[in-house]
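Give me a protein, keeping tokens residue-aligned:
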Amino acid sequence: MIDITKPYWWEDVPQEIEHQKRIANVLNIKQYFLRLHKVLHRPDFKFKGETYKTAKIVLQTLKSISDFHTSYILGNPISINGDQGLVKEFNRIYKKGRFDTIDYKIAQDLDRYGNSFEYDYLDGDVVKCHLIANESAYPVYSDEENYIAFVEYWQDAESGIKHYYVYYPDKVQVYQDSVLKDEKPNLTGLPIHYALLDKTEYNFFGDAPMNDLIPVMDKIEKLLSKLDDSITTLSLNPLGVSIGRGIDSSISKDMCGETLNYEAGGNFKYASAELDYNSIKLELDNLIQQLYTIACVPSAVIGQSNIANVSEISLKLLFSQSDNRAKKMAKVIKDGFFQRFIYFRKLLALQGKTFSDDNFLDMNITFNFNRPIDTQNMMNELKTQHDMGSISKQTIIDLSPYTTNTALEIDRIKAETEPKMPTEAKPTS
């Protein structure tokens, strides 16, 4: 473990083996999303005396899967519930700091890399967020597994200068190589470390879900590329076979519209290889099925089935694996958001806006999963529950698919229901 009392301790952090292995994996996944797949390394070969460029089929299926899960959990903004004064301030921070977009990016990082890192700060009177790239993020934990510091590090590709942002609970130091360039107070705390519940061997970091999907996708792309080669070289480019007396001159491999003369009994035909289509299809189908099973993506999402006129119960069953995965991720995100709200409260206090511990502890958030729903049946069920006295109007607003901001909607309802003061009549002359 790193001893942060030593001079220049932060220079040693990026050299630790657990960080190097994690960063290498992050960069590999980033390359994959930039379409730099393993299949691109397939070698070319000789065919009919010429170099044949092998097929290198790159599919961005994993990007679609990642986009689906990210949108599923945070495609719709979260709803903040609790004391209306506190909720109003937090919603104001969200709007001015564009935190809905930040939330989406956090979910995207978690789905791709297993970790996400957020630093909140005050810029003038606006609360902002700096999302630290996974390949630049180095959280520091003590031997007792306490989170004690953070290093944001990268090296300029052109100048070779090493940049370090060293975060302590009370200050942030900026270094270029070993030279201190700036120091400023840290008004919030250490960057928030979101880590998936499935951990790597080092326990502090979430395991990247893409590690389970990339090998399967590599196999699918390789198989499809080889199939394309087989069809192109063997099926679409058959070999000519002369039967009987030999032909005096060579025949062009691209012969078309020419005539060959044979003596009686002679013949000429094209021979092509027969592909074992059924075996290939069976393997592809199994690989694709495994891919979407591991990814927890329903077949309807990829167009493998029709969800028209499907009941609410059937929809829940269809998306059950997606729900389970989203709920698992939501626990991690929710813990991080509550740490963020602690930082929000600190920054609001600096602006003279304080809230009691009870109001703060009563606050909660609701995730609005982006799953197809039977809206009519859902609203009927909510109405039935309200008529029975088992839920409040605010709960209905929270759960309604037509509502994205509970506090705002309640304010609008109050404005509509409160009696209006009569307008004072103007005296006539």
